[in-house]
Request: fold
Amino acid sequence: MVLYTRMSKIILFAIVLQLIALNSVQTTVVNSCNKNLLLPNTTISINSLVCSETPCTCIPGCPFKLHLEFDSPRYLEHFKPDIIATYAGIKLDYPLGQDDGCDGLLNTQCPIVENEPIKYEVTMNVLSFFPEVTVSLNFTLQDLDADEPVVCILFDINVKKMNCPA
Reply:
């Protein structure tokens, strides 16, 4: 009977640990562009594989997702994602294919009220002509009404020509 009770406790403990692991959100370490702006919880994933530290390996032709979670610092009605890629001192506006930030909202819709929890996601593709280099990316959610950023993060990616992970 004692063995059965001990075994039950061990199984229960293992189940609790698995539930904790399943509910923990993996994030990617990124930097803020501006100390006055909030730094959202950020997850960068390539085919559902989370990159925990930058530089993240990105593969031409393989989409990668940028997922942000934050509380809105103010009322937002019109905002837009922008990304600037920098390599060897050359800056390039990178096309995201999402002109309206409201399209990337996962848990709510526009307009957003102040302090509302936000889950935002955008999918990006590294174009096939990119060489194997490390690129710095500056990602901003720009409030179009106030003409100022809401969120701004900096992170690096390594472009590698290889097969997309399954």
Summary: Residues 26-159 form a domain with the Immunoglobulin-like fold (CATH 2.60.40.770). The radius of gyration is 20 Å. The longest strand covers residues 148-159.
